């Protein structure tokens, strides 16, 4: 066995065990009886201990020092191993353990504080999490490196906080102008009616299949917060149901199908290798977003969906197709990121990005976070936060230690904009296909241009190859202005 | 940390990882999408490799040599560790791997051969399995030890093939005489009617709870072959549904609840220790059998169930309670072990026990197995096997390498007989309670006398303590003669 083969054999076993851990996580959110939570915590911790030992095994360092890669694919594989190994060994075991422990506690404290609208109860543990995350960031921050960038690098290798900030600054004026023009127009109506759970789930299964999802390699279940879990031949999705708002279920499903198609479409030859998964959070989100928004919320697809809704529910919640498409694309000022329309969503992300960057840099204290959030929300959204669960307590991320994650959502939107523009250029009949519920050409294009490559290229690299140019925010903004301009008669 | 504490810490992590493996197994049989089977095989193999390394870690041998147990509980814990470690290290890694591989293949070959009634297709791989199992048995067979006993010891420590054979020889005449007397009487009717799946499952959930099952620590799902999976705070059961025969669903559920109550009722202080689980297959089966048969098929409980069936289905499948109790306890000659009544079941087990013992000893060749099975079935059951799936291809056990497992089913019945006699003596109102659907006193007695102890005592030891005498087959046979004598007017 060559050094490369030995290293890959080690990585394969690690990936398989990580896949087991992911499956346990799925079980926890979908199937696990509530009384098993503590035992599951112990089981997960035992498995994480095994994974941590494998990921920081000094033998990896020796293999990396000795290995001679042959060709681009081996170089890409080794790049992932090196990135992961170097990050893992920089963090002392004591710090990694403490972080895992505090973040587990913090999520429980956060959930209770959110339910009770009690910011003060959350701040002490958030302060602990932040202190440990800053310590972790310092481990990555080799000479002159920004603390925030060290954390961001865990989710989106190659990006910097400064680079994203500059892009967000360029995006903001056009988003704000578009939002203003829309809000000056009469608000479109939402759907009315009752949409039974079983029918929503049956329709969601059909939509998942229309977007290419194969139930031979996955399943659809209910979860409090929809998510996708798995890789390769076992990619499972979840959704949720609100019987007065079928879009919640439908668009959560389509979104998670985008993630699942990415993980399931990576070339089989790459499965259980370091390059065998989606390459970054941003590119992952580009797939879920383009499925959900650029395709799923397009007027052409909405037209087809209108018919399927009438077939399914005996009504579609709107009197005619145009009103339905407007309901699908309703723009409203709101408190909650996960319920936001395509325009406001990015403003929600920018708010969080600026605040978490300031926290990590040390420019903002935890004690001042609520005031900072509320001031910023007032400034950006033109209304006051009415309660903490609609403000700084709404997201789980910070309690889970996920600083550096938020900006990847908007980066995903930007990437989706680039991919959508290229897709439109190459598929001139796309609207006609979508109006017939036929998504095969669009999902096939994404599979062949992006998904199949897994981690063989950098995040920006894979988008650049697919789009034909270095990614930038222009196509997303052009798309939003064109689509909402037409829908709202701007 | 003392040597004992170090050893227990190691064992705890191993148990937690074994619990993860068991959860994956549950997922595989209930939730996993079919296309994920190969990937799951790789995931399980990766986890088994970790478990095997932990179980054969030479450090365990050093700890065992150095440890000084204090008190009976520590001695019991160390007994389990020593038993498991010594068995594990006696088998060369090469043989363990080969067995895992061949048995995995053999189960697929068996399933196909059974579906196609093709014995010849199964024999070559069964021959390979048998050769490896005999090799494995030889590893355990220290001076003068019987080959079969080495395998049996993996399921039922303390038992020998000769001891079980002698007990089965004592049981056979009374079972045969009772069966003959019953078959001379007019056959009782089975249920008639249609019993919708959803209602069967709802009733089964209610019955599970009546037998003490707490859905806060478990769940009920469908599986092709019902099973229980888990331990401690997460014990899940499965059942299956036949819309013309509700007993299939109902009694599978009650049976699996017996297993689940055992695993879930082990003292919390013992969880994730070597003594934290059911102590043997025989004692496990005693719990599932007493739940299913001595309690669940008692005329008193059947009386209550008759009423619940009428409430649930609008009919109970029988005109009145006595006919219903006879249907619950219908005795019929049949081919299939898992569908057999309480009397025939043991004759099915004895047939398999004698054949597998002869195979392992070298007294019977695989090539002659089908003829031996068919001759024996004709002699014991008075009819000819009509097709291999009703004969030697019906059970998965041998293809899975589970030689030595079958006799624990009848041993479980014998133990259940002893426990039931003691239970009746201590709970004089049991019939009145069961006729009201109140199982609390009975299940509480089993919990306190048997289940809570986990592996603190030997299998025979825990039965002896609960029953007040060394276990023997008498109480089971007395119970069968009394119950069926009354039902059939013998």
Automatic annotation (TrEMBL), chains A, B:
Catalytic residues in the record: 256 (proton donor/acceptor)
CC cofactor note: Binds 1 zinc ion per subunit.
UniProt: Zn(2+) binding residues: 255, 259, 285
Keyword Metal-binding: yes
Any Pfam family the entry gives: Peptidase_M32
GO molecular function, one term: metal ion binding
Domain of life: Bacteria
Catalytic activity annotation: Release of a C-terminal amino acid with broad specificity, except for -Pro
Cofactor: Zn(2+)
UniProt function note: Broad specificity carboxypetidase that releases amino acids sequentially from the C-terminus, including neutral, aromatic, polar and basic residues.
Family in the record: Belongs to the peptidase M32 family.
Official protein name in the record: Metal-dependent carboxypeptidase
Classification lineage: Bacteria, Pseudomonadati, Pseudomonadota, Alphaproteobacteria, Rhodobacterales
């Amino acid at each position: 066995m060559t050094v490369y083969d030995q290293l890959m054999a080690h990585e394969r076993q690690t990936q398989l065990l990580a896949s087991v851990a992911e499956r346990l996580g799925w079980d926890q959110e979908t199937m696990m009886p509530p009384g098993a939570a503590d035992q599951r915590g112990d089981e997960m911790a035992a498995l994480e201990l095994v994974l941590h030992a494998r990921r920081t095994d000094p033998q990896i360092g020796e293999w990396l020092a000795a290995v001679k890669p042959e060709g681009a694919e081996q170089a890409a594989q080794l790049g992932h191993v090196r990135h992961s190994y170097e990050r893992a060994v920089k963090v002392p075991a004591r710090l990694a353990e403490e972080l895992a422990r505090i973040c587990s506690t913090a999520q429980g404290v956060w959930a209770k504080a959110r339910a009770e609208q009690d910011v003060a109860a959350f701040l002490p543990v958030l302060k602990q999490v932040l202190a440990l995350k800053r310590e972790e960031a310092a481990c990555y921050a080799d000479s002159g490196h920004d603390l925030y960038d060290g954390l961001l690098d865990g989710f989106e290798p190659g990006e910097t906080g400064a680079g994203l900030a500059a892009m967000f600054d360029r995006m903001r004026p056009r988003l704000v102008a578009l939002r203003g023009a829309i809000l000056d127009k009469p608000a479109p109506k939402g759907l009315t009616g009752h949409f039974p759970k079983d029918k929503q789930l049956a329709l969601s299964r059909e939509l998942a299949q229309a977007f290419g999802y194969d139930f031979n390699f996955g399943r659809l279940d209910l979860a409090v917060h929809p998510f996708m879990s798995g890789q390769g031949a076992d990619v499972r999705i979840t959704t949720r149901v609100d019987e007065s708002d079928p879009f919640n279920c439908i668009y959560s499903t389509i979104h998670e199908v985008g993630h699942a198609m990415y993980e399931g479409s990576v070339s089989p030859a790459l499965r259980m290798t370091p390059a065998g998964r989606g390459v970054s959070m941003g590119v992952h989100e580009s797939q879920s977003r383009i499925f959900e928004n650029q395709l799923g919320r397009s007027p052409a697809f909405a037209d087809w969906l209108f018919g399927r809704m009438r077939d399914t529910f005996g009504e579609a919640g709107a009197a005619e197709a145009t009103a339905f498409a407007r309901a699908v694309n309703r723009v409203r000022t709101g408190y909650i990121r996960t319920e936001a329309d395509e325009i406001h969503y990015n403003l929600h992300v920018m708010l969080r990005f600026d605040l978490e960057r300031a926290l990590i840099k040390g420019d903002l204290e935890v004690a001042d976070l609520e005031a900072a959030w509320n001031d910023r929300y007032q400034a950006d959204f033109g209304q006051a936060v009415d309660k903490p669960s609609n403000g700084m307590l709404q997201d789980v991320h910070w309690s889970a230690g996920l600083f550096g994650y938020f900006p990847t959502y908007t980066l995903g939107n930007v990437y989706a904009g680039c991919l959508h523009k290229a897709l439109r250029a190459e598929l001139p009949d796309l609207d006609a296909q979508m109006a017939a519920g036929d998504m095969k050409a669009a999902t096939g294009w994404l599979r062949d241009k992006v998904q199949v490559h897994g981690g063989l290229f950098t995040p920006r690299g894979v988008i650049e190859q697919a789009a034909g140019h270095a990614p930038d925010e222009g196509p997303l903004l052009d798309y939003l202005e064109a689509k909402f301009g037409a829908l709202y008669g701007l």
